[in-house]
Specification:
Layout: E1 2-7, H1 15-22, E2 66-67, H2 69-73, E3 86-91, H3 96-107, E4 109-116, H4 121-129, E5 133-137, H5 149-159, E6 163-165, H6 173-189, E7 196-200, H7 205-217, E8 222-228, E9 268-272, H8 274-288, H9 294-306, E10 315-320, H10 334-339, H11 376-386, E11 390-394, E12 400-405, H12 406-414, E13 433-436, H13 441-450, E14 453-463, E15 469-480, H14 481-497
Parallel strand pairs: 3-10, 4-5, 7-8, 7-10, 8-9, 13-14
Antiparallel strand pairs: 1-4, 1-6, 2-3, 11-12, 14-15
Helix pairs in contact: 6-7, 8-9
The structure holds pyridoxal-5'-phosphate.
Residues 95-96, 200-207, 250-252, 293, 295, 321-322 line the site of pyridoxal-5'-phosphate.
């Protein structure tokens, strides 16, 4: 995430036009991987250190959880017996963009957050609520391409008067904050005795700040860096070899080494992966009540491996950088986990008797469809008469164009966006779920947890005069929760009476 702040100025969205013309200009930017000018060196006397050493007053205890051996043994990814050291999770829940948007809201600055598409909608919604403007960039864009989040942030900065780029990849305050606060907190709460710290790296601010302070004050402490497969931050270089180009865990790993990441203070790197990260995050939530995000799972998935080298009584601190709040629609959702292949339906435990019955078995009424040329007034009349809330819109050849729902149509009519005499094609709605006639009722029940209905389709193969063929999706019907409930209750009644 690259944050951009300017004093409240041009109208929101005003930057878009300038952005379009911006491509003609020569690019002005500072790479986020420029060599660091920081003069910090391990072993330098503190008086010569560039870091300031603010005295911190004792902090209120954070939520510390001790993961003893018994708990770690239950970790599914960890098949070898675990150590008997204690694993403690330090929860430091904040995301840079949200912190910036919050400060900008209070100070009255205009705040533009440039973030890759991969970032969750929960982050976008919180940022929007804080008044930030959001610009999404392609997740796959290389960091040095003009369309990456870094590239777009620089373009905006160059085009908006009085704009500043906070540049978390180069900003020295990023690791310093962790040097002065997070690391001090760890030392305070562990009475200065820490044997291992496990932390993920995104910008690298967290791991650099913590490891520099610990190397100074607790020299024996081993620093373990966690980098996802598909990223290139780990050392040695061979660790980064993979076919993976994409991973789902947010906030960690990059395709460049940020200026603020000082890899000389990391003793050993481990690679993490999505499967283990999400499994561990869900386990920490379920068994420890730690409402953490996916990258906390990445850190813990590595910690349970790395901490095996520790002896009884030694301490391993695991940094949990983010909370569950940002991922409610992602790894917290069984549906998302199944869709992404991180969980199987079978993992959800016992299924009800109707789960694997196909949709074909439901007695759905004959499909009612309307042509796109039917007027809104006529469609409302048809829906009222038939007692339906929605109807598919299909063309003359039966191909599905979308849906019209009573609610959607009425709100467009009431808002004056359409007139009753307009054709329904103007209010077609495409955000609906389709399900195949051969899919099972289990899949349908997942859809109906979120949507009011699903469009039941079946595929037809159509042969053309030239001998070629094409597949077309045809409407078979609409299915709602009432259809599923009627089916289940009727069959249950039959089963009881037999
Ligand atoms: C969810 C999440 N995890 C981990 C990190 C990594 O922290 P750092 O950038 O300090 O390396 C970030 C950074 O923004 C993050 O958002």
């Amino acid at each position: 995430m690259a944050g951009e702040l300017s004093r409240a100025g041009p109208s929101p969205g005003g930057f878009k036009a300038r952005l379009d013309r911006g491509g003609e200009k020569e690019r002005q930017w500072i790479r986020p991987d420029t060599p660091s000018k920081c003069t910090w060196k391990l072993g330098k006397p503190l008086s010569a250190s560039p870091h300031h050493h603010a005295e911190t007053s004792p902090l209120p205890p954070l939520w510390w959880k001790c993961w003893k051996a018994g708990c770690a043994r239950a970790v599914p990814v960890c098949s070898v017996p675990c150590c008997c050291c204690s694993l403690s999770a330090l929860c430091a829940f904040a995301v840079a963009g949200i912190g910036l948007a919050l400060a900008a809201a209070v100070k009255g600055y205009r705040c533009i957050i440039v973030m890759p598409e991969k970032m969750s909608m929960e982050k976008v919604d919180v940022l929007r609520a804080l008044g930030a403007e959001i610009v999404r960039t392609p997740t796959t864009a290389r960091f040095d391409s003009p369309e990456s989040h870094v590239g777009v942030a620089w373009r905006l900065k160059n085009e908006i008067p009085n704009a500043h780029i906070l540049d978390q990849y180069r900003n020295a305050s990023n690791p310093l904050t962790h040097y002065d606060t997070t690391a001090e907190e760890i030392l305070q709460q562990c009475d200065g005795k820490v044997d291992m710290v496990v932390a993920t790296a995104g910008t690298g601010g967290t791991i650099t700040g913590i490891s520099r302070k610990l190397k100074e004050k607790c020299p024996g402490c081993k620093i373990i860096g966690v980098d996802p497969e598909g990223s290139i931050l780990a050392e040695p270089e061979e660790l980064n070899k993979t076919d993976k180009t994409m991973y789902e865990v947010e906030g960690i790993g990059y395709d460049f080494v940020p200026t603020v990441l000082d890899r000389s203070t990391v003793d050993q790197w481990y690679k993490s992966n999505d499967e283990e990260s999400f499994a561990l995050a869900r386990m920490m939530i379920r068994e420890e009540g730690l409402l953490c995000g996916g990258s906390s799972g990445s850190a813990m998935s590595v910690a349970v491996k790395a901490a095996k080298e520790l002896k009884e009584g030694q301490r391993c601190v695991v940094i949990c950088p983010d909370s569950i709040r940002n991922y409610m629609s992602k790894f917290l959702s069984d549906k998302w986990m199944i869709q992404k292949g991180f969980m199987k339906e079978e993992d959800l435990g016992n299924k009800p008797w109707w789960w694997n019955i196909s949709i074909q078995e439901l007695s759905l009424s004959a499909p009612l469809t309307v042509l796109p040329t039917v007027t809104c007034a006529k469609t409302v009349e048809i829906l009222r008469e038939k007692g339906f809330d929605q109807v598919p819109v299909v063309d003359e050849s039966g191909v599905i164009l979308g849906m019209v729902t009573l609610g959607n149509m009425l709100s467009s009519l009431l808002a004056g966006k359409v007139k009753p005499s307009d054709e329904v094609r103007k209010v077609i709605y495409k955000q609906f779920q389709q399900i195949n006639l051969k899919d099972n009722l289990g899949k349908l029940s997942h859809i109906l947890e979120i949507d009011h209905f699903a469009l039941v389709v079946h595929e037809q193969i159509q042969y053309h005069t030239d001998g070629s063929s094409s597949k077309r999706q045809m409407v078979f019907g609409i299915v709602t929760a009432i259809d599923l409930l009627n089916f289940v209750t009727a069959r249950e009644r039959e089963r009881k009476s037999n």
